[in-house]
Design a protein that fits this description.
Elements lengths: L9 H19 L21 H11 L6 H15 L6 H17 L2 H26 L5 H81 L3 H30 L16 H10 L3 E7 L9 H21 L4 E9 L2 E9 L13 H12 L3 E9 L2 E11 L9 H6 L5
Parallel strand pairs: 1-2
Antiparallel strand pairs: 2-3, 3-5, 4-5
Length: about 400
């Protein structure tokens, strides 16, 4: 099937109609571009002028949809028009077709047409002057330049500006897309950090509440129930206070709520004492000399959270026995290792979501460290070991979401 040409653009129809009506008006009043006595006029009379006029007007309909075909056809029509008395309408429509061929044509046409029209203008200037040796011969080159080179150059300038504007628009869209991607990634990363903080801050208290409430319900002893209720109340109050402070910061409500201070390694003693109060037999050992300099804040926070989550997991899953917490500075990194008895319990003492191990691994990887967790064997039986190596040099300063929210940053 033959491919149908697209419909002409509305403005092209107006240009064709305007050029044709203007040419007919000039033809009606007898105004041409040449006299009948000129040697170049081969077709004398008024009627031969109409054929190039109608052909050029038809080419105007194709100035956007088929600009190269329109220009080639109009060139033939203009050549025929030069052999008649000529029409100013045909000449003006030809200049518009040259302009449109450069503006709407292919990139190759936009490059070649200005060079071709420039070469034709030079030849139209040099050849007549060399043949006739009169200054008036230079006017032929000027006329050819106005009809061909001037509209071609104008079309090239407009096309370059249009391409530059389109490239700027595309760059702006790309920049906006990249900014949106960065914003989305920042939000996702911030939500992941907030999820780790919420889990580490609340899971310990809720696990203790679940375990001691189970003991209070299962053991028929007023003294045991009283002790369990005391632990439940203490963990409830502490967990509720931490949640209120964190929610107040996230809502930016101000008031009497103080920012939650980021925990450090100095708070490990209190953390271990809290675990002992919840029923764990915990032993803390540290080998941190001051010769290596202070531990960077991101590393200290990650180590504290890893120990906190490991103690929470031990409270929920460990078998009876001693839990050991060891921190040591080795080979430019802070090594955190927590071991607990493993293998003799039928099920967890409190339900868990499995997000704790994911959070510890994420904290370690954000600092460029290594993380391992799994069962191990020793002379005293099966153990569950959690080990993280956190680099102390060139530590990634991962922002604490709680502090970031307190400063008014993204939450």
């Amino acid at each position: 099937m033959a491919r149908r040409l697209p419909r002409p653009h509305r403005l092209d129809v107006y240009a064709a109609a305007g050029g044709l009506l203007g040419g007919l008006l000039l033809w009606g009043i007898g105004l041409g571009t040449r006299r009948a006595a000129d040697p170049i006029v081969l077709f004398d009379g008024r009627w031969p002028v109409l054929l190039p006029l109608f052909v050029t007007a038809g080419c105007e309909l194709l100035r956007r949809t088929a600009p190269r075909v329109a220009l080639l056809t109009a060139t033939v029509a203009l050549t025929l028009d030069t052999m008649t008395q000529g029409s100013l309408g045909t000449l003006l429509m030809f200049t518009d077709l040259v302009y449109a061929a450069v503006l709407y044509g292919t990139p190759a046409s936009a490059r070649r047409i200005p060079w071709i029209t420039g070469l034709v203008t030079v030849l139209a200037t040099v050849v007549p002057f060399a043949a006739w040796r009169v200054p008036e011969a230079l006017l032929i080159g000027v006329a050819v330049g106005l009809v061909s080179l001037a509209p071609a150059s104008t079309g090239l300038i407009v096309r370059n500006h249009r391409d530059a504007a389109e490239a700027a628009r595309l760059r702006a869209e790309q920049t906006a897309l990249l900014a949106e991607m960065d914003r989305t990634q920042a939000v996702v990363a911030e939500r992941a950090r907030m999820a780790r903080e919420l889990h580490d801050m609340v899971a310990n208290h809720l696990s203790a509440i679940a375990i001691h409430s189970t003991a209070a319900l299962s053991i028929d002893s007023p003294e045991t129930s009283r002790e369990a209720l005391g632990v439940i109340r203490e963990n409830s109050v502490e967990g509720l206070a931490e949640m209120r402070r964190l929610i107040g910061i996230l809502r930016d409500s101000g008031g009497d709520l103080e920012p939650v201070a980021a925990p450090t390694l100095d708070g490990l003693g209190s953390l271990v004492e809290g675990a002992r109060a919840n029923g764990l037999d915990v032993e803390l050992g540290t080998a941190l000399d001051d010769g290596g300099g202070p531990v960077p804040a991101p590393v200290g926070l990650a180590a504290y959270r890893i120990v906190q989550e490991s103690l929470t997991n031990a409270l929920k899953h460990a078998s009876p026995g001693r839990v050991t917490v060891c921190l040591a500075r080795r080979d430019g990194s802070l090594t955190v290792e927590v071991t607990s008895p493993y293998g003799d319990r039928d099920g967890p003492r409190a339900p868990g979501s499995g997000a704790g191990l994911v959070g510890m691994r994420e904290r370690t990887e954000l600092l460029g460290g290594t993380f391992e967790a799994g069962p191990a064997t020793s002379a005293h039986g099966g153990l569950w070991s959690v080990r993280a190596a956190l680099p102390l040099t060139d530590a990634v300063a991962t922002p604490d979401p709680v502090r970031t929210a307190a400063r008014g940053g993204p939450a």
